[in-house]
Amino acid sequence: MKIAVVGTGYVGLVTGTCLAETGNQVTCVDINEQKVKMMQEGQLPIYEPGLELLFHRNISQKRLLFTNNLADAIADAQIIFLALPTPPGGDGSADLSYVLGAAKDIAKLVTDYKVIVTKSTVPVGTADKVTAVMNENTNVEFAVVSNPEFLREGVAVEDFMKPDRVVVGTTDERARKLMAELYAPYVRQGNPVIFMDERSSELTKYAANSFLATKISFMNEVANLCELVGADVDMVRRGIGADNRIGNRFLFSGIGYGGSCFPKDVQALAKSAEENAYDFKILNSVMEVNEIQKKVLVQKLKKYYNGDLKGKKFAMWGLAFKPETDDIREAPALYIIDELLKEGATVSVFDPEGMKNVKALLGDKITYGADAYEILDDADALLIVTEWSAFRTPDFDQISGRLKNKVIFDGRNLYDLQKMIDLGFYYNSIGRKIIS
Q1: 148's torsion region: left (phi>0), alpha (psi -120 to 50) or beta?
Q2: Per residue, what are the HEC states of 322-340?
Q3: Where are the alpha helices (DSSP H) in 247-347?
Q4: Which residue in 53, 113, 135, 320 has its CB near the most CB atoms, within 10 A?
Q5: Which family, according to the similarity comment (predicted)?
């Protein structure tokens, strides 16, 4: 099948590459000439485990192409995916200008039946808006389909190649058959392709992410209560996660959620509810809790240092919003750094993949280490912000020898409490007793 993917951001590039892997002819189009040239030369613009192998294989076998020319990309395509940014506007609603702009451009170029698929996360009613834009600019027959992505950064290739479900919103029978054919190779194990109307499909993505964000914020609230009553959030998590009605995923407490999806999607769903005169109380609380939780380590630091962080040096392990990605969008690390700098502290950081992106954003406001240990020299405390595997079993002798004091503030609960007692650390984590 011939496919066009408009937009080569995270979703577009993973989608295009994985579609090519099952034998489709895929052309990815982007307005950024430098980025397109980079990909044509075999360079990946993002870090995602497992993507590089598929990317190079499909380029070499000429199933995956890149261009700046929209007309060339869509000329022979049966299906056109729109994988474009939908950033939050000033009021929290999703900005659809990129999606609708692309739809207008496509409408002026099509000469035969096309299936236009919104892969971007978009509010309820977007398919109707895309349809209206297309109708205003072409008389050629087309169908607009909603096909939200459920990719987790760090395991996105696996999620695409072996999805637990595929959601397709369409009322067009011809489009339904094409989408079923397209996704057949990915659901051979029997996982469902769930067909529904476009509006239900659009809401499904927002509802899924908002529910997961709610679980995270709920557990962070439980963790905060655990600290007050002397309970251990890890024990509570295990106790409730064993209930199959609840499940054990997204129950880890920490310093809030970040990334490109949860913050934006929760905000957009709440805004959509507001536009329909509905007060979505739970989501408003979820957002409030998350904003507070992102800075909980700073509050712990202030309490430990009697409110005075001026002149203190902190070493920070982790910048990306989660491990196995270089994505720093809405990362708690950025909020923590900002607060520490305001308090007059200095910050040295290390992250296996995220430093380049943070450096582009913050420049020399902070310092960057070549490895995890050099930033510890003369630091007053170590802050753990992202749960990279490399941080789980560190060399504690190096940590002890390099830090000014044996003090760790752990926003991801990586270490066993008894081990911290045995090693003689002051250890302050989330929802567990303080080891002092």
Answers
A1: beta
A2: CCCCCCCCCCHHHHHHHHH
A3: 262-275, 281-293, 296-304, 332-342
A4: 320
A5: Belongs to the UDP-glucose/GDP-mannose dehydrogenase family.
Tokens of 42: 């075999």
Instruction: Show the tokens assigned to 114.
Output: 């096309």
Overall size of the chain counted in residues: 436
Cβ neighbour number for residue 322 with a 10 Å cutoff: 19
pLDDT tens digits for range 142-178:
999 999 999 999 999 999 999 999 999 999 999 999 9
Give alpha helix (H) positions in 149-197: 156-161, 173-183
- State yes or no: pLDDT of 370 exceeds 90: yes
CB atoms within 10 A of CB 14: 27
Q: Tokens representing 175?
A: 């489009």
Given a contact cutoff of 8 angstroms between Cβ atoms, the answer to whether 412 and 386 are in contact is yes
Q: Give, in order, the Cα–Cα distances in Å from 403 to each of 282, 371, 380, 396, 407.
A: 42, 15, 6, 10, 8
What is the distance, to the nearest Å, from the Cα of residue 193 to the centroid of all Cα atoms in its chain?
23
Convert the pLDDT of each residue in 262-285 to its tens digit: 999 999 999 999 999 999 999 999
How many alpha carbons fall within 13 Å on the CB side of residue 236? 21
Helix/strand/coil for 244: coil
User: Which residues are known to be catalytic?
Assistant: 261
The label of the residue with tokens 């990605």 reads: 325
Task: Find residue 166's DSSP bridge partners.
Answer: 193
